[in-house]
Amino acid sequence: MTETQNLTLVQAIRDGLHTELREDDDVVVMGQDVGKNGGVFRATEGLFDEFGGDRVIDTPLAESGIVGTAVGMAAMGMRPVPEIQFSGFMYPGFDQIVSHMARFRTRSRGRFTLPMTLRAPYGGGIRAPEHHSESKEAFYAHEAGLKVVIPSTPYEAKGLLAASIRDPDPVIFLEPKLIYRAFREEVPEEPYTVPIGEAATRREGDDVAVFTYGAMTRPTLEAAETLGEEGIECEVVDLRTISPLDREAVVEAFEKTGRAVVVHEAPKTGGLAGEITAILQEEALLYQEAPIGRVTGFDVPYPLYALEDYYLPSAARIEDGILEAVEF
Amino acid sequence: MFDRAYDDTVRVLDEDGEVVGDVPDLDDESLVDMYRHMRLARHFDGRAVSLQRQGRMGTYPPLSGQEGAQIGSAFALDDDDWMVPSYREHGAALVHGLPLKQTLLYWMGHEDGNNAPTDVNVFPVAVPIASQIPHATGAAWASKLRGEDDAFVCYFGDGATSEGDFHEGINFAGVFDTPTVFFCNNNQWAISVPRERQTRSATLAQKAEAYGIDGVQVDGMDPLAVYSVTEAALEKARDPETDRPRPTLIEAVQYRFGAHTTADDPTVYRDDDEVERWKRKDPIDRLESYLRDEGVLDDERVAEIESTVEARVADAIDEAESMARPDPRELFEHAYAELPPELERQYEEFAALRDERGDAAFLEE
User: Fold this and answer.
1) The pTM is what?
2) Which residues from B are below 8 Å from A303, CB to CB?
3) Do A317 and B110 touch (CB under 8 A)?
4) Which residue among A178, B173, B258, B291 sits deepest, i.e. has the most Cβ atoms within 10 Å of its Cβ?
5) Is the ipTM beyond the 0.90 threshold?
């Protein structure tokens, strides 16, 4: 029988890093405070003591340096797992991400590949200081050459992280920090992967398909349960990977219901919801029975925390969006 | 002042408050005022940490131990000079006129915390490390291009010297000879990463050499030394007659007594012995000891200062906590000079739902 541990999402990520460090000597973890300190969210706790400072590396405070040196390591065949402490601090490394991490394979016609996984906590709802709560996954989904993975359960976090680290291509692995410690799940101790690029159906329903990911999965399911009591059955699909998108799963859920709502905490304009809406009209126009709804963050800078509850899609806003699609 | 070796640290008072250098020309009342502000900053800091512990404030970055560098440097600024802070300069900003209430509101998650009175020349808090350094160069450059004679002090930490923005900002300052003083609060630790792991350079001050500007190291636990160095650097920044470069990089060697922020536990990565060693260099004790020896301070005056400091912080906390949760309209209010129609629509849709469902449907807790 497989041994399991009852872990939170952040503990499952730590366990995933531990497993991959143990399985493959080419894996290194690097970033600010990931070593001796064990990560500001404890995502690398104990790894420095077990694997040493050459494999769990405290770097200078320089995001471009962290991403850029990881690119160099990966080009030489290592599997670096750089951490940016908060996704809001990725921008000094943005040039390295879009100009190199995303393009090295293409530019070298496949000679150099970058099997690296850039981890960062993202998203709001934890009363954090300025620049610690943004949800900018669309930047990375927009960049060809990158895969963008966002787990929402402990079991899948470990499996998706392993799949990302083993993937021949660079992965941006965004961790919804609001649910880092929100709940626990049995997580196998042994190595396993959860495939990149596949969505998961969290709830079955015939009336409307609701697409979401990350921390928004929970309020979306909450809204779906509330509406279920009123006889409105939502099919809730957790995308898990936002690039490449699981078009098949998205289209299938929509064809089943003819109505759709997309929920994300990122701003509306240029967000993933627009992309999903476009896919549905490209592939399933004749199934459409109502305008496709978008329940998202507003198109404003993420506020300081006194206002963040208003900014984030709440179950109330999600319910309202679903009702609009259902009652059209 | 600027011709010394980079590791020839400028000092005025030693750890016991004995005079070991040139005492700056400050009258007794200014010295007492400096001391008062250091006590105010220390007391504010303790109260802020406890507010966070009680759930009355969000994550907060403490400054205890760094009052000598913050208050000493800020005292050297003229009212018209500008301060470009990072996120830990509550003490420096206070000296330059930023009300304590503003600092409290910012860390309590209110946008208004960044809305300084218009006559206070302090930039908004900059959280992304080193990102404010090019701003300070640009702002000083604007002043120079317009023929004004304001100077600019930019604060950042030892970790910031690893970022690209540090190098780019200071390089521009060198090339365009801007009136900027780059003030590095080297508190030895960037969260858990020690200063030695940021750079192999023996000092941070010597980084000035590469950009052709002046660099000087000062004892950051010595407020009088910090004042003297900053004063000289500001003077040089304003005065185009000198043949020296206007910009200066000051490395103020100091220590953060507490955590990086209230979310951090420094016992994981540094020894108590080290903390205790630095606490013996406490900038407040040092100045107090000097002022008592000079006969400027006595028990009575110190007691009076303590009580006014406590009252002032208590008043500021009352004032900040009496602010109501901002209206959600504030989310949209300052995104643009004029709200685009789509944003107006997003707000109205939300406001209608809020009217229908009530506030509680949107608030966690």
Assistant:
1) 0.96
2) 111, 330-331
3) no
4) B173
5) yes
